[in-house]
Amino acid sequence: MAEESRDDETTGAKADEGAEKVDETTAGMSEAEMHEAGMSDAEMREAEMHEEAEMVARLQEEIRNLPVGEHLLYMMQSLSTLAVGRMGVTPETAALRDLDQARMAIDAFRALMEIVAPTRPAKEMVAHRGVLSQLQLAYVAALDRGPTGEGGAEADSLKAEPPAGREAQEAGGAEKPAE
């Protein structure tokens, strides 16, 4: 039994050495270059898997070290991109048009903005508020275009439920707090 354990350890060590050699040899190489170097498909797959595992490990380490506030800012950026995409304002995103999803992304952006506001510089928050305003205006314009993006009667019924805070902005007041 102890002999099997040593064999497993030796095999594992040899596999690690092989992976390191494959990684050192293949770093930055294209698939064609790996073929030219005489690597088999199995060796190339192993090299790619090893490279991906290292990249995932690096990303996980970066995420662990990133402050929560920075995560929230990345989430806000992602939400604003999603909102624009779900509004279907470009030919590329027309097929993704889903105004309920756009509204949810805008509302989530607004909620996160309220959370990060106390910890961020005032000038930065002005920029975030500007992005929120642009998203809300684009949402209203998307509603005006109707469910298919061409305008129509259904747009009027959808206007009854704009993203949170729109009523207050139209009234000229401050945005109402999230409920």
Q: Could you say how many structural domains there are in total?
A: 2
Strand content: under 5%
The run of helices and strands is HHHHHHHH
State the secondary-structure class. mainly alpha
N- and C-termini, Cα separation: 64 Å
Gyration radius (Cα, Å) is 26 Å
Shape: flat
User: Main beta sheet: strand number and arrangement?
Assistant: none
Number of helices: 8
Query: Mean of residue pLDDT?
Result: 76
The level of helicity is over 70%
By DSSP, the count of extended strands is 0
Low-confidence stretches: 11-22, 151-160, 166-179
Please give a handful of descriptors for the protein shown.
179 residues, disordered C terminus
What do these coordinates show?
This protein has helices at 2-26, 31-36, 41-65, 68-87, 99-116, 122-145, 153-158, 166-170. It is mainly alpha-helical and 179 residues long. The chain has two domains: 2-65, no CATH class; 68-170. α4 (68-87) packs antiparallel against α5 and α5 packs antiparallel against α6. The protein starts with a helix and ends in a 9-residue tail after the last helix.
Record the SSE blueprint.
Blueprint lengths: L1 H25 L4 H6 L4 H25 L2 H20 L11 H18 L5 H24 L7 H6 L7 H5 L9
Produce a short descriptive summary:
The chain is mostly helical and 179 residues long. It has helices at residues 2-26, 31-36, 41-65, 68-87, 99-116, 122-145, 153-158, 166-170.
